[in-house]
Amino acid sequence: MSRWTEQLENHPIQETLKQLKACVESELKDADDVEFVERRRFQKIISAFQNALEQVDPEVITFSQIDALNNYLTKNVSPQATAYQTSGAVQDLTNANNQLDSQLAQLALLQPFSKGKKQKSVTAKLETVVDDFAQAVAYKKKELETQIGELSQKITQQDKKQGELADLIETRRQETDAQISEWQKQFSEAQESRNIDFNTFRQTADT
Asked: How far, CA to CA in Å, does 175 sit from each of 46, 104, 146, 162, 170?
């Protein structure tokens, strides 16, 4: 192994690219089609840099170019990618992708120093399938959210009706209790009046 090969293999950019890729490898739990596309593009560019560095001839490149690339990625891309990994905010990932735009020229500059190996890349057809799938997932998600919203609204309405019915039952119960109480009062008063009349009648009869 030449000293240039060893220098490239141990260069900090290898770890930088590895960490950037890890920022977008977590499981997607609640993503839309925009996040799918942003993730795919970010992964594609980082993988392209990794592939280019694997294929480049270390003995014919300028390491100052690799140093500059690593410094840019560390200062401008890593903070945005790390923020996305932490927060899950798609805008952070979009910002990271935007920061990568200016470095695509660096990727092109590495190509002439390739050893001639074919670079593996995702085909356009596969990308179309992935995009279509992402859009279908996003559409289904919105459809389910709409259905859940409608169901929640119906449940709320049923709960409201049930509450109104419970209030009505309680009102009727109180009215019934009040009426029964009134009847009992009237019955007691009538009974007492009859007792008085009866006693008066007996006293009159005895005399």
From this structure: 77, 82, 43, 20, 9
What is the Cα–Cα distance from 155 to 148, expressed in whole angstroms?
10
Domain boundary assignment for the chain: 3-121
Cα gap 135→62, rounded to integer Å: 43
> What does each C-alpha distance from 19 to 53, 65, 101, 153 come to in angstroms?
16, 20, 19, 45
Nearest CA among 47, 99, 175 for reference residue 91: 99
DSSP state of 114: B
What residues pair up with 114 in beta bridges, in sequence order? 56
Full-model pTM? 0.57
Residues 70 and 19 sit within 8 Å (Cβ to Cβ): no
Cβ atoms 66, 8 nearer than 8 A: yes
Walk along the chain (207 residues) and give the pLDDT tens digit of each residue.
789 999 999 999 999 999 999 999 887 766 677 888 899 999 999 999 999 998 888 888 889 999 999 999 999 999 999 999 998 899 999 999 999 999 998 888 777 665 554 444 444 555 565 666 666 666 677 777 788 888 888 888 888 888 888 888 998 889 888 888 888 888 888 888 877 877 777 777 766
Contact, 97 vs 34, CB < 8 A? no
Q: CA-CA distance, 81 to 177, in Å (whole number)?
A: 70
Distance linking the first and last C-alpha atoms of the chain: 143
